[in-house]
Amino acid sequence: MLYYVTTNEGKVREAEEYLDDVVALDYDYPEIQSDSMAAIAAEGARAAHRHADAPVIVDDAGLFLEDFEGFPGPYSAYVEDTLGVERVGRLARREDATRARFRCVVAYCDGEPFEASPEPVDTTDRRGRDLAADERATAATDDSVAEGALPVKLFTGAVPGRIVEPRGEGGFGYDPIFEHDGRTFAEMSPEEKNAVSHRGRALGAFAEWFQGR
Ligand code: ITT
Questions:
Q1: What is the pLDDT of residue 154?
Q2: What's the total number of domains in the chain?
Q3: Per-residue model confidence (pLDDT) at position 96
Q4: β-sheet bridge partners, residue 148
């Protein structure tokens, strides 16, 4: 059993194309405060694995405005809830900061270590300490550190685009204001979005790796 841990139904619709036997788990894992989406996703996957006691993936994504130094980035959910998508769009267009990128990090944790392979494995605990293999043995005596150090396998994806006036009825979140190749993500079907999107890339890489696990 593999759980896809999210409170976002839009993400589940997109993930279904990649993950046949996956079960969506509506669990609001505690999000650590960090500028790094990889660190947020990795800690989320550890927490979700402890909660579900089964293999889990967590998907952390965000919108990065290139001329606003990546804002809202890891804070995309907070900014969507507070400012709203249309105001973010207006702000970006007014400030001529329309170059944008979606990024996604998929983090997998089943409590077991991984073989070395090209994708990164996060073994950093929540205090930012990088637990090298020899340190881990020592850290195992300290429960909080040992918990934080569960290995997490990371898969990433990104897609460039441009902020435009809202168009389209599909997708979710920032999709109506994000245009890629002439259409907004909200004007695409989930399959069309997956074929080019940040999430599609990350989940595609994950699904290929997971088949062999
Ligand atoms: P979970 O954490 O429970 O999975 P969430 O919606 O909070 O749900 P994220 O933290 O990954 O998920 O999302 C951060 C924000 O970015 C949030 O406002 C989303 O609506 C938005 N977002 C994420 N992926 C997106 C996508 O593919 N298209 C448009 N907006 C997206």
A1: 95
A2: 1
A3: 97
A4: none
- Active site (annotated) includes residue 110: no
**Structural domain harbouring 26:** 2-212
**Residues 193-201: what's their mean pLDDT?**
97
Catalytic member of 60, 110, 122, 125: 60
Please give the distance, rounded to the nearest whole angstrom, from the Cα atom of residue 8 to the centre of ligand 1: 7
What average pLDDT does the chain have? 88
Q: What is the Å distance from ligand 1's center to 26 Cα?
A: 14
In ligand 1, the atom with minimum distance to the C-alpha of 172 is 29
pLDDT score for 118:
65
pLDDT at 191 over 80: yes
Write the CATH number for 180.
Answer: 3.90.950.10
pLDDT number for residue 84 = 98
- Give the C-alpha separation, 158 to 26, whole Å: 25
Q: How many CA atoms lie within 13 A of 127 on its CB side?
A: 6
193 lines ligand 1 (CB under 6 A): no
| Contact 60 CB / ligand 1 (< 6 Å) | yes
Asked if residue 131 has pLDDT above 80, the reply is no
Q: Residue 194: CB within 6 Å of ligand 1?
A: no
- CA 190 – CA 186 distance, rounded (Å): 9
CA 119 – CA 57 distance, rounded (Å): 15
Is this prediction's pTM over 0.85?
Answer: yes
The three-point CA angle 8-179-96 to 5° equals: 110
